[in-house]
UniProtKB/TrEMBL annotation:
Family (UniProt): Belongs to the mitochondrial carrier (TC 2.A.29) family.
Topology relative to the membrane: Multi-pass membrane protein
InterPro entries assigned to the protein according to its UniProt record, in alphabetical order: GDC-like, MCP, MCP_dom_sf, MCP_transmembrane
Subcellular location: Mitochondrion inner membrane
PANTHER family in UniProt: SOLUTE CARRIER FAMILY 25
Protein name: Mitochondrial carrier protein
Entry keyword Membrane: yes
Lineage: Eukaryota, Metazoa, Spiralia, Lophotrochozoa, Platyhelminthes
UniProt superkingdom: Eukaryota
UniProt GO BP: transmembrane transport
Xref: SUPFAM superfamilies: Mitochondrial carrier
Length: 321
């Protein structure tokens, strides 16, 4: 009897070790996928922030005008300004998000069942968890991306790096500026993206198996083929971004409030997310305010979400989790 108990305890310990190993692998896969995806679209990401926040150096520029200005003034390095801060932020952010989704989805499936509602709630909770734990790094990345080299009006207003930016943020008590709209925007974005990805994936495999489905062997279940993962992930990301974009604009404005240099709307920081959205709408309207830069965002969010989901699923498959 005692020998059996020891045997069961040993088996239970082994199961826990394998479970922890699986969670650690998911964490690693999520972080690597996020870094790969964000590096792919870093130039477009910087242009989006400059247009969203009406940076004075790019106020009259469109997408291509901003790209040309960055190239002529800052060179190729300008396209990757703040990418170091982005990588420091995105690895834990993406890792936490994918791991949290796995944990929440498994927990909620026991009570709600496996379905779209469970994935929607799990995705929303995972996104908010990741944002909350990594938010100060996102503020740093936004501040660094917002500043422009070669500015005649404020030649000495730029941050010297990540540490200098963090020091100023602490002084201004702005490490969590814009957190409220970030959480409000992330809830629908992450929820819709995770839910849409799994739903679209299932629909593609079930409706068009000859085109999208592959099997490892005759007994294994059908899964989405590798080449279709970026496509499905991109569509899911586009749908999610459309829902949450106005809150993303509000978040960026609140993050750059008080940054060195002059910028139009953020000269007088709004009291909160609702006030910022109201100012954006009253001053610029819907298209130029709440959805400014959305066309560029579609260009960047499709490959970002596509690469992220595809890399994550491929890495999980390679690691066998």
């Amino acid at each position: 009897m005692e020998a059996q108990i020891k045997k069961d305890d040993k088996a239970s310990m082994i199961d826990k070790v394998f479970e922890l190993r699986g969670k650690a692998t998911i964490f690693l896969c999520g972080g690597m996928a996020g870094c790969l995806a964000k590096t792919t679209v870093a130039p477009l990401d910087r242009v989006k922030i400059l247009l969203q926040t009406h940076n004075h150096a790019h106020e009259s520029h469109g997408i291509f005008g901003t790209l040309r200005h960055i190239w002529s003034v800052e060179g190729i390095a300008g396209f990757y300004r703040s990418n170091g801060a982005q990588m420091i932020r995105i690895f834990p952010y993406s890792a936490i998000q994918f791991l949290s989704f796995d944990v929440y989805n498994n927990s909620l499936s026991a009570s709600l069942g496996e379905g779209n509602l469970t994935r929607l709630i799990s995705g929303s909770m995972a996104g908010m968890t990741a944002v909350s734990l990594t938010y100060p790094l996102d503020v740093v990345r936004t501040r660094l991306a917002y500043q422009s080299a070669g500015c005649a009006e404020h030649p000495h207003s730029n941050y010297s790096g990540i540490a200098d930016c963090l020091r100023h943020l602490r002084t201004q008590r702005a490490l969590f500026a814009g957190l409220a709209p970030s959480l409000l925007g992330m809830a629908p974005y992450a929820g819709v993206s995770f839910c849409a990805f799994h739903w679209l994936q299932r629909q593609a495999v079930e409706r068009w198996p000859g085109l999208f489905a592959v099997r490892d062997d005759d007994e294994s279940p059908a899964r989405l083929c590798t080449w279709a993962r970026p496509l499905i992930g991109g569509l899911a990301g586009a749908a999610a971004q459309t829902v949450s974009y106005p809150l993303d604009c509000a978040r960026r404005y609140m993050q750059v409030a008080g940054a060195p240099g002059r910028f139009s709307l953020a000269e007088v920081p709004a009291a909160g997310a609702a006030a910022t959205l109201s100012q954006l709408y009253s001053r610029y309207g819907v298209a130029a305010g709440l959805y400014r830069g959305l066309s560029l965002n579609y260009v960047r969010v499709v490959p970002t979400a596509g690469v992220s989901f595809a890399a994550y699923e491929t890495l999980r498959q390679a690691f066998g989790v």
